[in-house]
Amino acid sequence: VTEPEGITALLRGMMGRKDSNELMRESTIPQLFILGKHDGYLPLEKAEEMVAAHPQAKVAWLEQSGHMGFFEEPEACAAAIRDFMKQEN
Fold first, then answer.
1. Cα(57)–Cα(74) distance, integer angstroms
2. pLDDT tens digit string along 56-80?
3. Chain mean position to CA 76
4. Cβ count near 34 (within 10 Å)
5. Staple 72 to which of 31, 33, 65, 81, CB 3.0 to 4.6 Å?
6. CA-based diameter of the chain, in Å?
7. What is the pLDDT of residues 22-35, one digit of tens each?
């Protein structure tokens, strides 16, 4: 269980961080987005916009997850990472 103060500090840090989308688009390093279709922090519409803005990235959609897919669907998340790694080698 995360304490409310920890969540608040995390959210403030995320709000204040520099946008790195341009750096990601220009990068030649393989990229994988793992996104939950039920994310309360990044709504589906915004996630789809982000995916469209990063055509160089591979995308794995987790059908039953919110923002914490690695906890909510660990097997699907691990499979997405394994598949990505196989494609990149």
1. 21
2. 999 999 999 999 999 999 999 999 9
3. 14
4. 18
5. 65
6. 42
7. 888 888 899 999 99
